[in-house]
Write a structure and sequence with these properties.
Strand order of the largest sheet: 3-2-1-4-5
Number of helices: 8
CATH architecture of the largest domain: 3-Layer(aba) Sandwich
Largest sheet: 5 strands, parallel
Amino acid sequence: MFKKILVANRGEIAVRAFRAAFETGSGTVAVYPYEDRNSVHRLKADEAYEISAEGSPVRAYLSVSEMIRVAKESGADAIYPGYGFLSENPDLAREAAANGITFVGPKAEILELAGDKVNAKAAAIRANVPVLASSRHLVMLRS
């Protein structure tokens, strides 16, 4: 599967991902801002790297450039975003692919489509997926 997975998240989400990675024989990489230096997820990973971003510590977890930097520095061949934070960010998926790193999630194009409700509903209509009549109206108004 993967040699090493960077988990771009924290807390219980990251710990669960590390457990799954361990079961598949993959190494694990945690990321953390200075404020989370004593967090459990940092201690449960095989490796941990400090990340930073201007502003609040949460911004560090939202930094695509920091995730790519750490993935490259650590030799991770995959990035798993977990939930929230970067899980729906097409830029992370795109940058990971551009750097030869597997994004464990949908492709950037799918994230872009799903991230815009009107476009997602229009795609559903084109695919003959049933949608509410009010949803069809919104799609027609935007077209």
